[in-house]
Design brief:
The protein is built from 13 helices and 28 strands. It is an alpha+beta fold. α5 (341-352) crosses α9.
Length: 577
């Protein structure tokens, strides 16, 4: 009798998990996968995507705009091909609250399984996360993920019929970028990161080598570290003239222009012509690939959740590249620049390794003062999503256009991430900030800075962020110790109409920098009037031009810095001193 009851109980639990809700609820969608894709049970995040647009697959239509499709997600563990995964009216969704709000109508539907691997971390925690497959942590194109072909349905919310979806496809591998005369691709196994993650982990870099490079000669080259999101290869460098037409009808809405492909190709070719010209300064450019199970890059610092990426990049990867390509090999010959994520990284790396680099150029950096974590003061505010008065609550904006019109609210942007992946596993912006800055939670995942659904801020976590990653606070706290090594090295640029309100943190940081003494910071902070996100210090050209010139636009400032700091017996070439 005991065994019969146990079997009944086990069957009831399995059925409850399968339905994922009250057994009285009707399953609106039922998802299975073809047995040809069987793999001893799959772990991951099962996503259901619903759209109206027929121009592209639903999996490419999830975003923070008004035109987003609908997204629903659930975790699966050891999912086998003969098990049905069900979504019901109570399943949480984005941008609607749940599936009960899906109106009757004609839609296109698609399912995708974002696979998770199991990691046994050196801190004793075991976590399930998506391993990057060479795509830069993009769930909708990540190789080995499984998906269904989209199809049209006529949905009736009052019907008890279940929409059945079978997953039949697997995303194929991505071909690695190939080396060329000037562009090389370096990959090393990181001892530090492998120990942290409990499996082999690698760091990679795209390297642009100087004209005339010869491993055997005595010329040494400064290293320009161009930080940013996952770069498949060096971009903006083209050895042949443009082939795109000067004028076309393709409108680039971001910049309000046509013919942008020609502009990009011309800028890339012009850069090549400068690069190989007789008198151009000779240096090495690297773009680091440090994608990881949480995001398309690590933010280039040490983190409780991501591991010692800062040390691994500075003490493992960079010396290896300098040895291969005759880098200076010392701090005076290394410079940092980048925009947005890359802007934060440039400043953070300079602050955390003040004597290992000789200057940073941080454009439109992610929040560098958490009193202005975009529009949230994580130390004083109680809720990230609402500003609350006695009689009403006002939603906080998440994104604006160049005229100040609100394009998305913080609550919606964070909800999308929560549906993509709980426990900070969306692979997106707010979750990577949390993964980098937070302590490890009891469950092994990043401890949330706020509740993803309600916005309630955890001030204990906020205080941890301040002590470890609030760059303005850390510089002010430690100026007596690191100020001398930062003198003349900090340069920050931001548009005063930044789409993500990043200029607010820059203003607060500038107030501190201008107050510094013994030494005075002796750098530069500049703003683009009415300029949106990605403004990088160019007062003469529009953003659609200057964003293509990172590798050349700071050269005069770098030249001045080298003239002041390079040893007399340096072996640099074409730097004019």
């Amino acid at each position: 009798m005991k065994n019969i009851f146990g079997a009944f109980l086990a069957t009831f639990i399995i059925a409850s998990v399968l339905i994922g809700c009250n057994s009285k609820e009707t399953a609106l969608f039922e998802i299975t996968y073809n047995s040809s894709l069987e793999f001893d049970g799959h772990d991951g995040r099962l996503l259901l995507i619903i759209s109206k647009d027929t121009l592209k697959e639903p999996r490419f239509q999830i975003n923070d705009s008004d035109e987003t499709g609908i997204l629903i997600g659930k975790n699966v563990n050891q999912w086998r091909s003969d098990q049905k995964q069900l979504f019901t009216s109570s399943s949480l969704a984005y941008p609607i609250d749940n599936l009960s709000e899906l109106e009757s109508g004609t839609y296109f539907v698609q399912a995708l399984l974002h696979k998770y691997d199991t990691f046994n971390l050196s801190n004793g925690k075991t976590v399930q996360l998506p391993m990057d497959q060479g795509e830069g942590q993009k769930w909708n194109i990540s190789p080995k993920n499984l998906y269904s072909k989209p199809f049209k349905i006529d949905f009736n919310k009052n019907s008890k019929n279940t929409v059945k979806i079978e997953i039949t496809e697997e995303i194929p591998p991505i071909k690695p970028a190939e080396d060329s005369e000037y562009i090389k691709h370096v990959k090393i196994k990181s001892k530090m990161l492998s120990e942290f993650w409990g499996r082999p982990m690698y760091l990679q870099a795209n390297v642009l080598i100087p004209e005339g490079f010869n491993k055997e000669n005595k010329t040494q080259y400064p290293l320009m570290v161009f930080h940013g999101h996952f770069p498949k290869t060096i971009g903006g460098f083209r050895t042949s003239p443009p082939t795109a037409p000067k004028k076309d009808s393709i409108f680039t809405s971001r910049f309000g222009i046509t013919g942008y492909k020609y502009i990009q190709e011309k800028e890339a070719y012009d850069f090549y012509k400068n690069w190989v010209s007789k008198d151009f300064p000779r240096f090495v450019v690297i773009e680091i690939q440090h994608q990881n199970p949480y995001y398309d890059d690590s933010y280039a610092v040490n983190s409780a959740n991501l591991g010692p990426y800062g040390d691994a990049i500075t003490y493992e990867l960079i010396p290896e590249i300098e040895e291969m390509f005759n880098g200076v090999g010392e701090g005076w010959g290394r410079f940092l620049y980048g925009g947005s994520t890359g802007g934060w990284e440039a400043l953070a790396v300079q602050v955390f390794y003040p004597d290992q680099y000789n200057g940073c150029f941080a454009a439109c950096p992610d929040p560098i003062d958490f009193r202005a974590y975009t529009v949230v003061d994580i130390y004083k505010d109680e809720n990230a999503y609402y500003k609350t008065g006695n009689f009403r609550k006002t939603l906080r904006p998440g994104m604006r256009d160049g005229k100040g019109h609100i394009k998305a609210q913080l609550i919606d942007m964070n909800r999308r991430e929560h549906i993509l992946g709980d426990k900070g596993r969306s692979g997106d912006q707010w979750d990577i900030w949390q993964a980098v800055y937070s302590p490890v939670g009891e469950d092994g995942y990043p401890k949330p800075i706020w509740d993803k659904l309600t916005g309630k801020i955890d001030h204990d976590v906020a205080n941890y962020w301040r002590e470890n990653y609030d760059l303005r606070y850390i510089m002010e706290r430690d100026w007596s110790r690191i100020g001398k090594d930062l003198e003349g090295k900090i340069n920050i640029y931001c548009g005063d109409m930044d789409n993500y309100y990043l200029n607010n943190a820059v203003v607060l940081t500038e107030e501190f920098l201008e107050s510094t003494q013994d030494p005075y910071y002796n750098g530069e902070v500049d703003y683009g009037n009415n300029a949106e996100h990605c403004w990088n210090g160019d007062q003469d050209n529009p953003n659609y031009i200057s964003r293509l010139r990172y590798n050349t636009m700071y050269l005069e400032k770098i030249k001045d810095r080298l003239k002041k700091t390079a040893p007399k017996n340096h072996r640099l070439k074409n730097w004019g001193f």
